[in-house]
Amino acid sequence: MRLVIRQDYDAVSYHVAKYVKERIMEFAPTANNPFVLGLPTGSSPVGVYRNLVKFHQNGELSFKHIVTFNMDEYVGLPRDHPESYHSFMWKHLFKHVDILPENVHILDGNATDLDLECHRFEEKIDAVGGIELFLGGIGPDGHIAFNEPGSSLNSRTRVKTLAYETIVANARFFDNDITKVPNLALTVGVGRKGDEKTDDKPAFGQHNNYDCKDE
């Protein structure tokens, strides 16, 4: 593992965004061979998305041939709720770039059958040949997506009960009221992230100014 340390959050965000841009440009995606990107939510990646939007606005990066899969979504939160991860992604990234709506994949936390929704999400990832690059935001306790420390290394997309510490940490997005934070979520598993095609797996956190990459 390589640990990259930058002086502050903005520097880390730019470093990660630049790396993503370079990977996409090197891949040279087309309609028949899109670049498949796994994306996180939360406070950590906001700066990364801001820089990716700037790259797009400057004509340095197109999302036209990029397919995305988001890592998680709350259960029971309306899709148009300001704190749903659907809303988050369109607010911070998708509405500002030229990505095709049909290439955006976010778990449906309001599906009638949540287990089936998770299974279908896995099938969609397999149908495009897997994830080329998965970004991982690291939470205060080390969780990635809603995989808490100790989650099975073989886990796939599934329903998860959120740890109390995660609920408390996320309360800042819900008027600091833990009763407003959903206690269930859908999340991709550790095993799915481990299936990423590249050996270089960037993971970053806002609480520490670092970017970790497996090598």
UniProtKB/TrEMBL annotation:
InterPro entries: Glc/Gal-6P_isomerase, Glucosamine6P_isomerase, Glucosamine6P_isomerase_CS, NagB/RpiA_transferase-like. Its EC number is 3.5.99.6. Residues 191-215 are annotated as: Disordered. Residues 192-202 have a biased composition (Basic and acidic residues). Gene3D superfamilies: 3.40.50.1360. GO terms for molecular function: glucosamine-6-phosphate deaminase activity; identical protein binding; isomerase activity. The keyword Transcription regulation does not apply. Residues 8-145 form the Glucosamine/galactosamine-6-phosphate isomerase domain. GO terms for biological process: carbohydrate metabolic process; glucosamine catabolic process; N-acetylglucosamine catabolic process; N-acetylneuraminate catabolic process. It catalyses: alpha-D-glucosamine 6-phosphate + H2O = beta-D-fructose 6-phosphate + NH4(+). The keyword Glycoprotein does not apply. Belongs to the glucosamine/galactosamine-6-phosphate isomerase family. This is Glucosamine-6-phosphate isomerase.
